[in-house]
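Tokens as discussed.
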């Protein structure tokens, strides 16, 4: 927990609570995280004389506060390391609340990131046009229901996923996000955000996709962050002209990433139009050349929304695709990714890795995506909120939350490993 947040919590006060449990706690250490921290606080305040307790003298204001801090520090130091860490841990909701204090004017860090509050805010995290793309993505996952079946073998659930030879804790990756200061506020630029995200994801047992931009320093810093973390991540290159692609692919390839991605849907971004060198759509033949430039690294094409598009990506030699409408940011009134995923999976599933993004927020959403045919998912905006609100700790909290939700859904639907998840586990399929 950040120092300022901790200070505010400690001196907020809670009426009607006795300090006696705190004294007991200081000996036993059996309280859960929130109660644990509060118990230490109450015990310290009693000893320092904030509360009238027989035998405890009241000191002057400044002296009393200094004594309190000393007692609080020494009490925490006596706790086991695990308990100490637990006492300071932030919750998901606390991180969101903290993010609201440092976001720019567009993102509201909503309790549920569904595209409603940021509708039609570009710049910002919202969707293009009337904003239905983002909203529809989220809603369609919520319309799907899962089939519960607990008449099965009682064995532990395994959520791990093999991603081109890299084992990750859950089939979830942080999506590439760019222009941070433009869309989300001044707290982080692209360079700092990617550095925090790549490291935090690697430490949390997953991997991040990094972004690209018109500033060459963005992809250079992304490559540096990936190299620092043993290549644990996927750099994303925009669909520039072939000369600039060659230069950027060679740069990120030096970091030895898991794979290299190209967000071909970025061809619709306004800031990429009319640039020198130009960026835009790519033919199958052009994509074949880009696959060669990857020099043996898997190439993932992000922005596939049709069976025909998936087949063309396969023909081009891509190792994977991301079923994505870019959160509705490049074309309004597209279908949701959940609506097109099953047909795409039926067409190219087993022939290439299929990822999907768009409105996925929980571990249950991840389960639904896998049941419809995806191998793994990308999540964008929620990771932004986690980084803005809690830095690396925020990322860890969110990954833990997703893993717990996914494991619980799998267990209740009779799936003990990812390969057990079937489309029949979705109601109506």
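Sequence:
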């Amino acid at each position: 927990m950040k120092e300022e947040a901790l200070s505010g919590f400690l001196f907020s006060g809670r009426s009607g609570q006795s300090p006696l449990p705190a004294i007991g706690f200081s000996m036993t250490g059996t309280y859960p995280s929130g109660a644990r921290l509060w118990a230490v606080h109450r015990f310290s305040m009693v000893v320092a004389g904030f509360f009238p307790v027989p035998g405890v003298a009241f000191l002057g204001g400044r002296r009393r506060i200094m004594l309190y801090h000393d007692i609080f520090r020494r009490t925490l130091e006596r706790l086991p390391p695990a308990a100490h860490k637990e006492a300071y841990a932030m919750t998901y909701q606390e991180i969101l609340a903290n993010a609201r204090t440092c976001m720019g004017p567009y993102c509201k860090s909503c309790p549920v990131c569904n595209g409603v509050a940021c509708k039609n805010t570009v710049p910002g995290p919202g969707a293009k046009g009337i904003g239905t793309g983002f909203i529809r993505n989220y809603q369609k996952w919520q319309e799907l229901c899962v089939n519960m079946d607990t008449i099965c073998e009682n064995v532990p659930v395994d959520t791990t996923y093999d991603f081109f030879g890299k084992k990750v804790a859950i089939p979830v990756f942080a999506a590439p996000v760019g222009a941070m200061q433009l869309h989300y506020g001044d707290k982080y630029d692209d360079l700092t955000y990617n550095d925090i995200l790549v490291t935090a994801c690697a430490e949390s047992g997953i991997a991040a996709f990094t972004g690209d931009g018109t500033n060459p320093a963005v992809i250079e810093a992304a490559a540096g962050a990936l190299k620092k973390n043993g290549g644990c991540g996927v750099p994303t290159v925009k669909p520039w002209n072939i000369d600039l692609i060659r230069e950027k692919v060679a740069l990120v390839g030096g970091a030895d990433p898991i794979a290299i991605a190209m967000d071909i849907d970025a061809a619709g971004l306004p800031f990429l139009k009319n640039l020198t060198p130009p960026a835009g759509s790519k033919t199958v033949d052009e994509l074949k050349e880009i696959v060669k430039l990857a020099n043996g690294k898997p190439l993932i094409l992000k922005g596939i929304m049709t069976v025909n598009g998936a087949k063309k990506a396969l023909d081009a030699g891509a190792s994977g695709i991301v079923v994505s409408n870019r959160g509705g940011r490049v074309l309004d009134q597209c279908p949701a990714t959940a609506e097109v995923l099953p047909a795409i999976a039926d067409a190219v599933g087993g022939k290439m890795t299929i990822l999907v993004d768009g409105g996925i927020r929980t571990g249950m959403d991840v389960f639904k995506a896998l049941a419809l045919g995806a191998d793994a998912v990308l999540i964008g905006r929620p990771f932004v909120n986690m980084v803005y609100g809690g830095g690396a700790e925020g990322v860890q909290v969110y990954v833990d939350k997703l893993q717990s939700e996914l494991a619980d859904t799998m267990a209740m639907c009779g799936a003990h490993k990812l390969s057990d998840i079937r489309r029949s586990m979705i109601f109506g399929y």
